[in-house]
Automatic annotation (TrEMBL):
Organism: Jannaschia seosinensis
Enzyme Commission numbers on file: 3.6.3.-
Keyword Transmembrane: no
Gene Ontology MF: a single term: ATP hydrolysis activity
Name of the protein in its database record: Putative osmoprotectant uptake system ATP-binding protein YehX
Amino acid sequence: MIEIDRITKTYDGVHAVDSVTMTVETGTITIIVGTSGSGKTTLLRMINRLEEPSSGEVRINGESTLATKPHLLRRRIGYAIQGHGLFPHHSVARNIGAVPELLNWPKDKISARVDELLTLFSMDPVAFRDRYPAELSGGQQQRVGVARALASRPDLLLMDEPFGALDPIIRSRAQDDLRRIQQRLGSTIMLVTHDMDEAIRLGDRVAVMDGGKLVQYATPAEIISQPATGFVADMVGDVERPLRLLSLIPVSEVVEDGAAEGGALPAGASLRDALAACLWTGRTAVPVAHDDAVVGRVTLDAIRARAELHA
Ligand SMILES: Nc1ncnc2c1ncn2[C@@H]1O[C@H](COP(=O)(O)OP(=O)(O)OP(=O)(O)O)[C@@H](O)[C@H]1O
C-alpha cells in the first residue's frame, strides 16, 4: 500500500502540489490525470524522491520514504518516462538488466528475467536481446523501457506519459499490453497522463489534479458519472470525442461480407447507431441493409478499430 500524506511542493512561494493525500492499493493501476502544469509530474517525482517534498510524506507499506536514502529507494521503485530513456550504447538485454545488475543479482538470474520480460512483451528474446535501441521501432523501444522499469519486480512502478510519443494504434496496443502484464505480475503502478481516455481505459482508480490540488480520486465509472467539479466534467467531456466522431461516419464505410442476427440498420446510419445497436442487443455484429436488402454486417471490432484510428 502506498500512502501519500498531505504532500506539498512549493516553488518560489507557489504550490506546484498542494497538500495531496491519497492511498494506492497494492496490485492496482492508479492514473494521475490533469492539464499541463497541474502538478502531476511533481507529485510522481516526490514519490521516488527525484523531488523532495516541501512538506508531507509518502509511506510504502507503512515505511516513510524519508527513512531510505534516495538512490536506494529508486532501486525499489521502477520509473518509466516518455521517450523511454534507454541507454543507446547498451543492448536490449543490458538495458532491461540494469537495475538487477545494480542489485548484484547473479548473471543467470538476470538473463532469465530479461528473457521472461521480453516474452511477456511479445518480443522474441533470441531476436531482440542483443539488439541496440536504435535497431528497434518506437513501440519496441517503449516496451523495452517498461520492461526495464519492471525488471527487479519493484514495489511500485511510476510511469510519466509513457505512451505520449506513440501513434494512436500502437498506443492502444501498448495500453492493453501494460494491463495484461500488470495483471500477470500483480504490479502496483502509478501513471501520469494528460489524456482522460487513457485514464478511464487503464485506471482502477483515477486521480484528477487541477492547480496542484487533487480534485477527485475515484473509479473511472464514478469519474464519468459523478464528476466532482466542472473541471473534471470538462475533462470527461473529451472522452466522448470518439463517440462524436463515430456519429459522423456512415456504416457503409466499414460494412463487410457476412451474416448477423437482428434487425438491419440502413447503410446511411452512423457507426454510433451501430455501436448502440450492438450494445443494446448484446451482439457483436449488426446486419446492414440497402433498399431493404441486407448487404452485409458491421462488427464491434470494426467499430472499435475505426474509433481507435481517431482517438
Ligand atoms: N523546478 C521547478 N522550478 C519552478 N517551478 C517548477 C519546477 N518544476 C515544476 N514547476 C512548476 O510547478 C507546476 C507543476 O509542474 P508539473 O511539471 O508537475 O506539471 P504537470 O502537470 O506534470 O505538467 P505537464 O503535463 O506539462 O508535464 C508548474 O506550474 C511548473 O511550472
